[in-house]
Input
Amino acid sequence: MTLDQIAEAPTSGVRNDGSEVTVRLRVNGRDHRVTVDPRTSLLDLLREHLALTGAKKGCDHGQCGACTVHLDGRRVVSCLTPAVQASERQVTTIEGLASSDGRLHPMQQAFIDHDALQCGYCTPGQIMSAVACVQEGHADSIERIREYMSGNLCRCGAYVGIVAAIQDAAAKMRRA
Amino acid sequence: MSEMPFPDTPRVDAYDKVCGKPIFAADDARSGLLHAAFAVSTVAKGHITSLDTTAALTVRGVRLVLTHENIGEVKPRGFIMGGGYGFQSFQPMLSPAIAYRGQPIALVAADTLEAAMEAASRIEATYEQQPFSVTLDAEGTETINQADTPLKNFIPEIVVGDAEQAFATASVKIDEVYNCPVQHQNPIELIATVAAWDGDRLRIHEGTQNAEAIRHGVATALGLAPEKIEVISSFAGGGFGQKNSLQTQTVLVAIAARRTGQPVKLVVPRTGVFHDASFRPATRHRVRLGADKAGKIVAGVHEIDAQTSRHDLFPGEYAATSSRLYGFASFRGVERLVRTDVQTPGYMRAPFEHPACYAMESAIDELAYALGQDPVELRLANDTSVDSPTGLPLSSRHVAACLRRGAERFGWAQRSMAPQSMHGEDGSQIGWGVALGAYPGIMVPAIAHLKVADDGNVTISVGGHEMGQGIRTALANAVSRKLDVPLEKVSVVIGDTRVAPQHLTAGSWGTASAIPAAEDACDAMLKALADLSRTGVRGSPAEILKAAGRQSLEVEVQRKAPGQPDAIFERLRAGLPSIGGPVYGSYVTFSYIAHFVEVRVEPGTRRIRVPRVVSVADCGRVISPRTAASQVRGGVVWGIGAALREASEVDARYGGFLNADLAEYVLPVNADIGSIDVEFIDEPDKTFNSAGAKGLGEVAMTGAAAAIANAVFHATGRRVRNLPIRIEHLL
Output
């Protein structure tokens, strides 16, 4: 497909008029069609266009992990993910983690039980990373949890609680 | 019942936090919101000679470019430590003056964040540059003895006996210099403001530790009545001192919102958090200790050179804590301030106490080795119940208990004294270190409003800001116990200028100030309920209300620090710091902690690991055990960061900081942290206040860096006197 053809195509993730693109994506099981500046990050799309503000901006450089979401089931830092890269894909954010009847995901409950948070700002990213850490099979030892959670900074220093929460939730997630 | 320890209860706001509820200022995503971005100075000092905004204004979606040329009249808002409201007195964008690299020179407001950022990048400035100095020893700095300034009226010099003379004649002497680098607080929540006007009323959402200073500072700057301004900061995503006053951007965002007629959101990028907000200044500490041959310390001299800015004197209070660690027979503190071309430095968790305890507790370890005495025994032998600088009794001091409990939990008795004498099975060098920390016991005035309703709901509204330390949980715990109502029925409204004056929350005074006020309100409520129930009805507040045919009952009380005049409440209402202590006429209050640390230094890489820490704290009564333990663990993580990781690299060539992001400014990550075992003495200090609570959030960090440095010495035989200690220092 040539650039001209892309410019004319009405489908998702392509440029409409040189300054905006339309992105079609599924977020927490719901389909969205959003017209954004092509420079928009997935994080800013979620926060500013869909009002899903659970994912946080802590650095905008992919360095702190506060913006972590799942893209097609894998964790990504949404501030370094162009929104167009998420077109036609599935995004899960912290708002989509609890079940539809309001029951918390075991990881969310474990974060409460182990006081694995203080200010709460990095918490959504920590929890999304923690769920992925278990699903990736990286939660089988304290050392591996620590290593695979080191992309998520917690300035309050809740790391001891975070590791304990992941150990606790990992066992429950395996049983589930 | 109130004499019993508090039960372990969950953090009351944890549910909202694990669900990612929109609780932070920048979570405002209302439609019609404009996004703002700054253009910043690329030079360190001088003035703007031309500012071209033409290209910026052509960017689609740009609504406003604000510069010093079109901003109109803005009045000075002052410096928080000089009777004003700002983290510094200097407000950028009011004139062509450039005081530091990274200072904002223009603000763009646009329909989208992308447009605002592009337009900001297209602003062209030319400058006339002037020579500048950004390090303690640079040419062109100016050194001021704090005792020669009016600051001596607020921060008394520490002079006990003739310490110089006692040092000169002491049998055993330590005389060393310790250096602490510039550091940045780096709460993960970026500094952010949302400002919205409704007619002539202004509402500001900002994560802050000081909503009242924002309110009054903006009112002063814009010439508005404070009653026209509401500031809401129900949650701050970490503060650590950086959010303790009016920031640069708040007034500018408010002006942009007024000018455009739309709400405006500005999220300061991480590099701006380094360059245009406060930071921990660089400090140099010369410590002299003299002791007799038995290990009795006869002299302490602590001289400090601390960085400040050209436009403000950020006061030094280092010796105020180092002099309190032991029963010094003589002591002298000398605080010097060094003017450099930076934004004004400020408060970062344990702002004076961490560097002071690092320096003094390193020196004490050196003294222990000079004497050949066990470091715990030396500390116990120099314990005191009298405040050395004032001669007054201490309201409580459980230092010996902290040391003994910590030593037991840690297994200190197994330690061999000689450096390089302990090894792991992998050949790593093992070091065990100990250090004390201390932090002044401070209280501020508070006004508490308590409402009970016939549906069982209880609402406590009081001054205080939740930034993760757990003050909301502590308040809920205290009110729940006093009124004997379920925890989940208690709502806590804080960080909101609409409900109560919001004094700065810092200095670990939050619990000691808000809890006694809340408990007083509960007492007043119980009395009011008793008056209502004279008919003989007994039971819960809701039952009493129902029986009396009342829907709700409200009381308000005010509470101040011991010895404060009633006029202090006017300062509180004016958003000015109204701090009492740690000297309270007839006694002195400090919190204390003892840290025991194991480090392992890997044989090949010389990498330093901290597999375990035991910390025992004396913070009076623990009001919220679960969040308190988290506070201490967090403080230890900060100590590990300070000892082994964190330094802001100053750019002496161009000004500013070279590692102004979260990859290059190295914070402790999960893999850096091992086991952190926390214990509390949990002895209430009823002399200090009726709740018996002393401060905790900052004492938790104090001494931790020294304990690590002392452990590194024990492991390697290397005494590193510059923080942070890194691999290259051990090669």
